[in-house]
């Protein structure tokens, strides 16, 4: 059975998931809800600390940070799975660590996915259209995905647009 890979980046992603389910015919597909813990920030924190204080972050602190990130990721995926089940979609969850764009593309390249659904920008980002309207993860996925990509954009209300704008026929 083929899967639709849906990138889930935050708690409260239910509206994006609902938009995906109403935008794509998913009969016969499993939703693969994926979240990637971006451990690059953890490495940057350790680097900054070692430069400023002359010593790296203690190992137990790194483990605590990692545990907190995994707990948050588990909550994010759990909420998304609850929304998918409420909407009648079969789903699986996948949790990875690394650079999010690369990990999502690698997951899709595994051969099971026919489509990637991803938000165009993080929720706190500027919503204006234009050359900077894609976040770095979405841009990497769009540029490197081996399968089609469906971008979901939030509208000014903060909620994703649930349907594409109507098609206006051309007048000859």
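Sequence proposed for the structure above (172 residues):
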């Amino acid at each position: 059975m083929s899967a639709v890979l849906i990138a889930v980046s935050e708690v409260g992603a239910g509206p994006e998931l609902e938009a995906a389910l109403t935008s794509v015919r998913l009969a016969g597909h499993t939703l693969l809800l994926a979240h990637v813990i971006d451990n690059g920030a953890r490495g940057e924190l350790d680097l900054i600390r070692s430069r400023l204080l002359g010593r790296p972050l203690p190992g137990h602190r790194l483990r605590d940070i990692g545990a907190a990130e995994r707990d948050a990721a588990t909550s994010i995926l759990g909420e998304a799975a609850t929304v998918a089940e409420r909407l009648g979609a079969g789903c699986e969850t996948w949790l990875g660590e690394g650079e999010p764009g690369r990990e999502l593309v690698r997951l899709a390249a595994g051969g099971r996915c026919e489509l990637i659904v991803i938000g165009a920008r993080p929720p706190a980002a500027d919503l204006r259209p234009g050359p900077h309207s894609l976040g770095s993860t979405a841009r990497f996925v769009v540029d490197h995905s081996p399968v089609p990509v469906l971008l979901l954009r939030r509208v000014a209300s903060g909620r994703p647009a649930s349907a594409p704008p109507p098609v206006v026929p051309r007048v000859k």
